[in-house]
Amino acid sequence: MKTTFLQRLDQVVRQLLPFSLTLLLVLLDAMPTRLPGFAAVAPLLPLISVYYWAIYRPELLPPSVAFALGVINDVIIGTPLGVSALVYLLVQGMTASQRRFFHGKSFLVAWWAFGLVAVVALMLQWILVSVIFGHMLAPQAVIVEFVMTVAFYPLLCWLFARTQLALMRQ
Amino acid sequence: MKQHSGTLGRLATLKLLAQRFAFLSLVMASFALMLLGKADTVLVERVRVAVGDAVAPLLDVMSRPAGAIAEVVGAVHDLAELRAENVRLKAENAKLMHWQMVARQLDNENRAFRQQLNFIPDPDPSFITTRVIGDTGGAFVHSMLINAGGRDGVRKGQAVIAGEVLVGRIAEVGQRSARVLLLTDINSRIPVVLEGSRAKAILTGDNSDRPRLSYLSPNTNASPGDRVVTSGHGGAFPPGMPIGVVSSVQDGVVRVEPFVHRYQLEYVTVVDYGLPGILPSEAAAGEGRDR
What we know:
The complex is a heterodimer of chains A (about 170) and B (about 290). Chain A is an all-alpha fold. Chain A has 8 helices and no strands. Chain A is globular and about 60 Å long. Chain A starts with a helix and ends with a helix. Chain B is α+β, with helices and mostly antiparallel strands and about 290 residues long. Chain B folds into 2 domains: about 80 residues, no CATH class; about 160 residues, Rod shape-determining protein MreC, domain 1 (Thrombin, subunit H, Beta Barrel), CATH 2.40.10.340. Helices cover about 45% and strands about 25% of the residues of chain B. Chain B is built from 4 helices and 12 strands. Chain B has a 6-stranded antiparallel barrel. In chain B, strand 4 and strand 5 form a beta hairpin. The longest helix of chain B has about 40 residues. Chain B is elongated. Chains A and B meet through helix 2, helix 4, helix 5, helix 7 and helix 8 of A and helix 1, helix 2, strand 1 and strand 2 of B.
């Protein structure tokens, strides 16, 4: 069976989904929400995306793409260049290397593991930013940001799962 | 057969090695980027500004629904409090009328004095009002993207205000977008005075909602409720712009509650006072070329 041009285009678009969804989350993080107190502790939504795809479709969001998304995030959000790049890269590598552990495990296990990954990721980001700026950042906001990120996991996870079922069935 | 599987095994090992190598080089690349960001700030800034310009229209469109939702919520809220608000405003109006009278008298008096002293007034400022299109969330940086840039006359180091109060300063300028460094950001330093005692200090952001006053001389008495305004030192901002009030004094650490709330900012005004600023390099050079 020969694939037509449109079928191939369709394939490419589907394969670009993890990347484009993560990019959308980066932009969403940069959007003004006008909620009191929210901006300072906005959840790190792209982190959830990188983690999710590293477990379920690592070939569609390989280390190089995670790195690129991190650079884009740094440039748009204004964090020191390279910090998010390293964090996303390590999250992708760490998760993808352990992905067999998640097969057949319940959602709660994945959520719990995400908590661990997020602790490491935010601690690393906190240390790197503190070193680069030469000041110790107050940890409170980072802790709240961690809680927010973990709290947003189920919602995004559900959305990703729906997307995966609807558009990326193999 | 055995040899064949051996080759396959070797190939797989090679592939794994290549993958590991690629991963490691990406890790190295991240560190290289961090070093580059520290060393060559001009190049990194140029990249940031270019990307900022590219995503500005997208963010502009995306930020509109958020604004609309906030407006509807605000409208319902306002409707509920209409009566109380009316009473409060009437009282406030009476008070302000009185203040207006005082201000007129002082203005006349001032003008007379200035004429006598042959005083040279500050240049009149020019204003650029623009929408906030990006409020970069997160605990690590406090900055905003605005929908105006170099082509609209925005220059690095200019003051950004909302209403009458200081929001921050312009840190990076692109063609159609610019980044505002909020006064709560860890890299923000603003020369200020306490309005009552005229004690000078530097308002130092630390990524918390309440920036700190540093270099305040130890024998000044700062107490909660003191108004903090810009001092105009260093030529970055004009003197007397309101910033906030002292909120707490604990163990010699004085914290200031800014008047401006980050989440309320929908439109901000970039003000050009014609001051040279603490960041003379690019802005001044650019103006020099234009002339």
